[in-house]
Amino acid sequence: MKLFTSCLALLALVHHVSAQTWYFLTFTTPAGSYITSYSGSFVAPPLPQAATYYLWPGLQPPGNAGVLQAVLDGRSGEWWIGDGYCCSDPSLAWGSGFNVPNGQTVNFGFSVNSVSSGTWSTSLSSSGGGSATGSFALPTHQMNQAILAIELYDVAWTFGQFAFSNVVITANTTSTSWCTNGPSNYQNAAVVTKTTPVAIVSGGTTTCKISSIVLVQPA
């Protein structure tokens, strides 16, 4: 996790904040293999106040140059979600987004047109009718980490659980242990519940399915 925490330090500098707390889970594919799609749903928890809450699923490459992420942002006092690539190498414009009331379900999707060219298509939709799409050219960043994260600045985790369902990760490998043994829990900082991941291998590709995975509360 050393390289990943280096990237997190970069994020802290970008956001210009003083106190940073992280809770995140990571599925990491074997060396030389890469994620080609990542999708699922989550419920927007009650937002306690206008503050820097960033809750997100995302993807990261082996070199940890940045994060392709769908960020539920609480700074305005109402959740807003959009897709973007943070924070540099390359510098890309943030995608469009929409507001998400407490309790609504958000569906997210990331897919790459090919591992070699690296243009990622993103999609977001909500049970309230919000939707957004994006396109991010990342030809030098083949993603090998699928992440579920709670990123907090100067606030505590007081909003209850961050619950995901129907999570599906596809990677160009026949290995299954990255799925069935995952995810890793950063510093065991979060209490986590999950259904047993199911790995399906077909044509040189493994599809990892998790019906439910919940960051319940701080450990």
TrEMBL record:
Protein name per the record: Uncharacterized protein
Lineage: Eukaryota, Fungi, Dikarya, Basidiomycota, Agaricomycotina
Organism, as annotated: Roridomyces roridus
Record keywords, A-Z: Signal
Signal peptide: 1-19
